[in-house]
Design a protein that fits this description.
With 110 residues, the chain is α/β, with parallel strands linked by helices. It is built from three helices and six strands; from the N terminus they run E-H-E-H-E-H-E-E-E. The strands form two sheets. A four-stranded mixed beta sheet has the order 3-4-6-5.
Length: 110
């Protein structure tokens, strides 16, 4: 994030939103944008990104919809990284790595 022009956090949990604000104060807060919002509503707005990191609750339903919305938001040559449980199923990624019960899935937009 040091080279990022900005970082957008989307979170619904008010305690985590407060923690994000406190953490952003430790850095250049002009770079941090914190949205207390439903991620699906946010993803349906007009945004674009070079890198999207997604960490939904394990067992999240509609992972495929979440992935498709994120991929639509990516700029060309952008990367999507999704953290899930190894038990969660979703559409095929370009690459995956397993760490214990955690799966990191990677997509690259051409």
């Amino acid at each position: 994030s040091r080279m990022a022009k900005s970082v957008i956090f989307v979170e619904t949990n008010k305690y985590l939103v407060q923690l994000l604000y406190r953490n952003c104060l430790k850095f250049n807060q002009k770079k941090c944008i914190i949205r207390k919002n439903d991620v699906y509503k946010f993803l349906n707005e007009k945004h674009s990104a070079d890198l999207i990191l997604v960490d939904p609750p394990y067992g999240q339903k509609d992972l495929n919809l979440l992935i498709k919305l994120c991929l639509n938001m990516l700029n060309p040559d952008g990367t999507l990284i999704l953290e899930t449980s190894t038990k969660d199923e979703h559409i095929n990624a370009d690459n995956e790595r397993i760490y214990g019960s955690t799966r990191l899935s990677f997509w690259r937009k051409q």
